């Protein structure tokens, strides 16, 4: 293994510009992968936070007695997938409107209050809100059970689409990376076809011939991941610093820079090493069949 490591480093130095080309291919690809991974993970995080904010609002019929409301609360809590149930009186609802839109709404206080008492229902699974709302609507003394309607459905559909396409695009990028690296390293191997032929003639095994190239590809992937790690770390830190106040004001937040960037860097380095080594193995197959 020590000899293979030395040979892989010698090969990187000896091939010069070809090694630079291979590292550049990895760098460009991993830069796109790193940016997209950071974007996708944070979109998924914020989407989950938005999903968790979707609640079922169960409006109680006006004139319903306290004992009937207590019974209704128990019935709502007994529904499948219900996590918590919070009661808000019509007065509290009006106070919230007054605090948000101004004192002119105070004219509806007292007996003039047109609002209903409400049960705010949080579900165990955000996507269960639609089902819980439909079940709550059928209960006695319920005038309406809302969950955001088409807006909530559109949100859930958008989140699923982002996650599905994001994973697909990331996998596509990795396939492109393996293709670029394998073709770049193949040119390197072509220039050393005579050397590989001599090694085979003197009895070298396929694994013995393959190891230096596999390690060379791994080094190429690791070196190619350094610049993307630096760019993504600096870029994400700047975005996080500028976006922190805005997202916090809305109750949502990006991943903190640490340990998020540490694990993202580890992932980029690991991906670089794996696709570099895989690209080398793919390139070596035709030569080892001779």
Automatic annotation (TrEMBL):
Compartments where located: Cell membrane
Limits of the FtsX extracellular domain: 54-144
Main subcellular localisation: membrane
Keyword Transmembrane helix: yes
Domain ABC3 transporter permease C-terminal: 169-289
Annotated keywords: Cell cycle, Cell division, Cell membrane, Membrane, Transmembrane, Transmembrane helix
Matches recorded under InterPro entries: ABC3_permease_C (IPR003838), FtsX (IPR004513), FtsX_ECD (IPR040690), FtsX_firmicutes-type (IPR058204)
GO BP annotations listed: cell division
Membrane topology: Multi-pass membrane protein
Transmembrane segments: 20-41, 162-182, 218-240, 260-282
GO cellular component: plasma membrane
Family per similarity comment: Belongs to the ABC-4 integral membrane protein family. FtsX subfamily.
Function of the molecule: Part of the ABC transporter FtsEX involved in asymmetric cellular division facilitating the initiation of sporulation.
Protein name as annotated: Cell division protein FtsX
Lineage of source species: Bacteria, Bacillati, Bacillota, Bacilli, Lactobacillales
């Amino acid at each position: 293994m020590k000899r293979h490591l030395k040979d892989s480093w010698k090969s990187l130095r000896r091939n010069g510009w070809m090694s630079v080309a291979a590292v550049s291919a990895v760098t460009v690809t991993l830069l796109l992968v790193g940016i997209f991974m950071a974007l996708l993970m944070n979109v998924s995080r914020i989407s989950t936070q938005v999903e968790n904010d979707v609640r079922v609002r169960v409006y109680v019929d006006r004139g319903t007695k306290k004992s009937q409301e207590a019974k209704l609360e128990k019935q709502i809590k007994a529904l499948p997938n219900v996590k918590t149930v919070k009661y808000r009186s019509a007065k509290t609802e009006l106070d919230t409107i007054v605090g948000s839109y101004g004192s002119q709404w105070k004219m509806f206080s007292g007996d003039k209050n047109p609002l209903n008492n409400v049960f705010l229902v949080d579900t165990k699974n955000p996507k269960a809100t639609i089902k819980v709302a439909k079940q709550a609507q059928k209960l006695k003394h319920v005038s309406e059970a809302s969950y955001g309607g088409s807006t909530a459905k559109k949100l859930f559909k958008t989140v699923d689409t982002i996650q599905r396409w994001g994973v697909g695009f990331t996998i596509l990028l990795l396939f492109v990376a393996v293709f670029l690296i394998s073709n770049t390293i193949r040119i390197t191997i072509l220039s050393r076809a005579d050397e590989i032929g001599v090694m085979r003639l003197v009895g070298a095994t396929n694994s013995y011939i393959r190891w230096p190239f596999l390690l060379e590809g791994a080094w190429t992937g690791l070196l190619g991941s350094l610049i993307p790690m630096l760019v993504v770390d600096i870029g994400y830190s700047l975005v996080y610093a500028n976006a922190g106040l805005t997202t916090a004001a809305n109750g949502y937040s990006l991943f903190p820079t640490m340990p998020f960037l540490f694990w993202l860097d580890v992932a980029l380095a690991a991906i670089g090493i794996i696709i570099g080594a895989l690209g080398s193995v793919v390139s070596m197959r035709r030569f080892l069949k001779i």
